[in-house]
Amino acid sequence: MTPRIEDRPQMSVEEFEELERHAPETVWLEFINGKVVVKPMADGNHCEMIAWLQRVCMQYRPDLWLHSESGLKTERYRKGRARADGVLVPVGALKGQGEWSEADGALMAVEVTSYDSDTHQRDRVEKPDGYAAAGIPVYLLIDRDDCSLIVFNQPEDGRYRHEEKLPFGATVKLPQPVNITLDTEPLKEFAD
């Protein structure tokens, strides 16, 4: 059976990486489900949410670091390239990695929704599947549209088997291997 045209990638991963290397500094590119995606630049509140999470992670798990805007090889067979808003890894785990790190050492990927037309498809549909297929144990989505956090975990067969959605202000338990409890009250300050 011949693959449908919409199932074929726009280019190879190698061609994407070459394109991305030559993109202007003001543009972040990702390669999700075989398509080139332009990731919006983060606004101030978006950056503050990631900074808040970095501080919390450092306080409770000094053996880990939340890297912001980190490139990951995602999806099945590492054919995707996602620039996660945050990637939680053991300290030193990215040493020697290139711009697109293997997802093996990642304990959690984090995305904060942006105010653009692609955020639903990218952050709520495609990225959970890509991160699950790469075997990342936890995906945390900070959803600014409805002021909630969604914790995805238990990746299996390219999907997360469990997800829990809680409003800003709730206490959120990030499961193993992250094992951090978040008091999300401060996120209300950064909700647009």
Describe the protein's architecture and organization.
This protein is an alpha+beta fold. The protein has helices at 13-21, 44-60, 119-133; strands spanning 28-32, 35-39, 64-74, 80-90, 100-101, 108-112, 138-143, 148-156, 159-167, 171-174, 180-183. The chain starts with 12 loop residues before the first helix and ends in a 9-residue tail after the last strand. 38% of the residues are buried. The model has no long low-confidence stretch (mean pLDDT 88).
Topology:
Layout: H1 13-21, E1 28-32, E2 35-39, H2 44-60, E3 64-74, E4 80-90, E5 100-101, E6 108-112, H3 119-133, E7 138-143, E8 148-156, E9 159-167, E10 171-174, E11 180-183
Parallel strand pairs: 3-5, 6-7
Antiparallel strand pairs: 1-2, 3-4, 4-6, 7-8, 8-9, 10-11
In short:
The protein is of the alpha+beta class and 192 residues long. It has three helices and eleven strands, in the order αββαββββαβββββ. The strands form three sheets. Strands 5-3-4-6-7-8-9 form a seven-stranded mixed β-sheet.
